[in-house]
Amino acid sequence: MAKVLVTGSAGGVGLGVCRALLAAGHDVTGFDLQPSEPGVHSVIGDITDREVVRNAIAGNDMVIHLAATPDEADFLGELLEPNVRGLFHICDGARTEQIKRLVLASSVQVVSGHSWRQTIQIEDGPRVVNHYALTKLWLESMGEMYARVFGMVVIAARLGWLPRSPEHAAELLASPTGTDVYLSHDDAGRFFRACVEQKMEPGQFETLFATSKPATQTRIDLSHTTKVLGYEPQDTWPSGHAF
Ligand SMILES: NC(=O)c1ccc[n+]([C@@H]2O[C@H](COP(=O)([O-])OP(=O)(O)OC[C@H]3O[C@@H](n4cnc5c(N)ncnc54)[C@H](O)[C@@H]3O)[C@@H](O)[C@H]2O)c1
């Protein structure tokens, strides 16, 4: 059993992650601007407050960092504070509190500048088309640096499309690739549970795609994720869909 702090615990991804970790017997603390689910110890706070973040991290074994502005938005007004300053508070708080494992939510949007006609592999590298994805590239680089320099295990999870509202689900359906990069709540839970439980070496850094099974065509190659974590998606759109 691990003591895990989940930031963004009240959000679309966070709900599925907290449920899966609780069901697996882990001790889960949620950190969010809003209250977390029943069963989760809830800390209300803002990741842009360095001291509050450090206090919340203290005493945990691992941190799963989801709190962010979760899509493209004005860089200076909406992305900079949570996705850049807040990320630094999480990584640096994890270092100073000697957290062993840090899981950071990146996005498949870091590869959205590639051609989607072929299957995208981890080795293809990033190709961003907006400032949100740039903040996630910064997150991946910061995670790699903290693993290499400070010896932490860090996973940068390139999450697929997990609808957080009926409107977000409608956008997914309207996108030509949406149902192929879909991530269900249950698969997100399975993926993050594996991130917590899989044996890994100190200083190991991994960038891992996380999606459910494609509905029409394989756009994202999950073989590296399966090799590192043993994660196998079980859902295909619309199974596991909350709306
Ligand atoms: N849902 C997706 O399709 C998707 C895809 C790829 C990556 N992601 C990433 O996954 C993470 C979670 O996304 P989501 O879809 O659950 O978003 P969401 O908006 O549903 O949840 C985000 C949560 O973070 C909290 N939060 C935001 N700013 C905060 C702050 N300053 N301090 C504390 N808490 C704060 C919000 O209150 C919210 O509960 C994000 O990092 C996002 O970039 C999501």
Describe the structure.
The chain has 243 residues and is of the alpha/beta class. It has one domain (3-229): 3-Layer(aba) Sandwich (Rossmann fold). Helices cover 37% and strands 16% of the residues. The protein contains seven helices and seven strands, in the order βαββαβαβαβααβα. A seven-stranded parallel sheet has the order 3-2-1-4-5-6-7, sandwiched between helices. Helix 1 crosses helix 6 (185-197) and helix 3 runs parallel beside helix 4. The structure holds nicotinamide-adenine-dinucleotide. Nicotinamide-adenine-dinucleotide binds next to helix 1, helix 3 and strand 5. Nicotinamide-adenine-dinucleotide is lined by residues 8, 10-14, 32-34, 46-48, 66-68, 70, 82, 86, 105, 107, 159, 161-162, 164.
Summarize, please.
With 243 residues, the chain is α/β, with parallel strands linked by helices.
Helices, strands, pairings?
Blueprint: E1 3-7, H1 12-23, E2 27-32, E3 41-44, H2 50-57, E4 62-65, H3 75-96, E5 101-107, H4 131-150, E6 153-159, H5 166-174, H6 185-197, E7 205-210, H7 223-229
Parallel strand pairs: 1-2, 1-4, 2-3, 4-5, 5-6, 6-7
The protein binds nicotinamide-adenine-dinucleotide.
Count of domains = 1
- Kindly provide the name of the CATH class: Alpha Beta
> What is the count of β-strands?
7
Provide the low-confidence segments as ranges.
Answer: none
CATH topology: Rossmann fold
Q: How is the main sheet built?
A: 7 strands, parallel
Give the helix tally: 7
Overall, the morphology is globular
- Mean pLDDT across all amino acids: 96
Radius of gyration: 16 Å
Bound molecules: nicotinamide-adenine-dinucleotide
Helix/strand order: EHEEHEHEHEHHEH
Strand order of the largest sheet: 3-2-1-4-5-6-7
**Beta-strand proportion:** 15-25%
